């Protein structure tokens, strides 16, 4: 049942001003939404919610929150998840308030590293880092992947980080020669043998031979490799242009590259300390603010349908990524930029 619906432009909206059982739908929809069709569809659920009282004696309500981020190039991420909150009349002064929805939560989140269940803390930290990597990749419009390797078995994480920092510094020094500044998001991958690789998402075409020459100077000639994969069929290995393997030749959108890079977070969670950085990024990357699209009561399926309808009316669905987990009552959508088109497959 739809409780409130607010769209992307909701800075002045205060959810605390809504009265319990308020009958009118409140909606501030993002630009580009077909107001008439959206309003007709969503009001069906709103009318169904009128006059329904909560069962007597229950002090905790399950609600599904739907939130989104929109990027200037048209990419959209929508996430929905269930939370348990105190119902009106049963709130306690010491319980925290969710700043985005105005709802009072049952208990505060555990501080990072302070939870008695370390496994759960690592899982939460990993998911947070994956989301940050994905969002930053989308913000820079990452369309190329760079993988830097060592010929020798380098297991010293601090050395790898120093080499990566020096690589970025030298590339950015070429800005005065007309090369664009390197905006990047990077993660380290630990191989089974213990050696590290650097995976870096960047935006725009770079001088491939120059990048390889810089990496070779840092690690020593013949002691490292550099593989660069662009959005099309071509790639570069150690400065030489090649063609991708057939299975990797399909054009990939920014949202797919972002998801691909984020998967490297957490491969070595058992060896990772909670306070150790999991990803690295250039300065000045601006991630759009997350906005609340709706808060739904007792009906996960309705929230899912509402999120999908919102995307149908406002986003490019070609190549869209989806995830739904009914067991955990959560879902996630990620769409491509407005210009992305899936390639035509010729049999």
Automatic annotation (TrEMBL):
Annotated Pfam families: REP_ORF2-G2P
InterPro entries in the cross-refs: ORF2/G2P_dom
Domain annotation Replication-associated protein ORF2/G2P: ranges: 144-268
Region (Disordered): 108-134
Protein origin, superkingdom: Bacteria
Ranges of compositional bias, category Basic and acidic residues: 111-122
Protein known as: Replication-associated protein ORF2/G2P domain-containing protein
Originating organism: Ralstonia syzygii R24
Organism lineage string: Bacteria, Pseudomonadati, Pseudomonadota, Betaproteobacteria, Burkholderiales
């Amino acid at each position: 049942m739809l409780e409130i619906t607010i769209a992307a432009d909701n800075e002045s909206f205060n959810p605390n001003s809504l009265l319990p059982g308020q009958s009118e739908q409140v909606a501030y929809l993002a630009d580009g939404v077909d107001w008439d069709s959206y309003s007709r569809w969503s009001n069906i659920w709103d009318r169904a919610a009128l006059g329904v009282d909560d069962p007597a004696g229950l002090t905790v309500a399950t609600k599904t929150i739907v939130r989104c981020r929109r990027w200037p190039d048209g990419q959209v991420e929508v996430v929905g998840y269930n939370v348990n909150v105190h119902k009106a009349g049963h709130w306690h002064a010491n319980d925290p308030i969710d700043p985005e929805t105005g709802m009072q939560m049952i208990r505060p989140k555990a501080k990072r590293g302070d939870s008695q269940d370390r496994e759960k803390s690592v899982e939460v930290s990993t998911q947070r880092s994956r989301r940050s990597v994905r969002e930053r990749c989308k913000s820079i419009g990452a369309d190329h992947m760079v993988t830097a390797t060592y010929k020798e078995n380098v297991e010293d994480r601090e050395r790898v980080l120093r080499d990566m920092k020096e690589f970025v510094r030298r590339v950015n020094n070429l800005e005065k020669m007309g090369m664009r500044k390197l905006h990047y998001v990077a993660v380290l991958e630990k191989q089974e043998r213990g050696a590290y690789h650097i995976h870096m998402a960047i935006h725009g075409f770079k001088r491939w031979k120059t990048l390889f020459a810089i990496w070779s100077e840092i690690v020593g000639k013949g002691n490292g490799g550099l593989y660069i994969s662009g959005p099309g069929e071509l790639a570069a290995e150690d400065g030489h242009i090649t063609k991708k393997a057939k299975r990797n030749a399909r054009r990939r959108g920014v949202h797919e590259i972002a998801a691909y890079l984020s998967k490297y977070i957490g491969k070595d969670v058992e060896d990772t300390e909670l306070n150790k950085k999991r990803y690295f990024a250039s300065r000045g990357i601006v991630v759009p603010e997350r906005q609340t699209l709706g808060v739904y009561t007792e009906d996960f399926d309705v929230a899912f349908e509402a999120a999908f309808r919102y995307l149908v009316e406002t986003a490019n669905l070609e190549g869209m990524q989806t995830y739904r987990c009914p067991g955990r009552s959560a879902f996630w959508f990620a769409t491509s930029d407005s210009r992305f088109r899936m390639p035509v497959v010729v049999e």
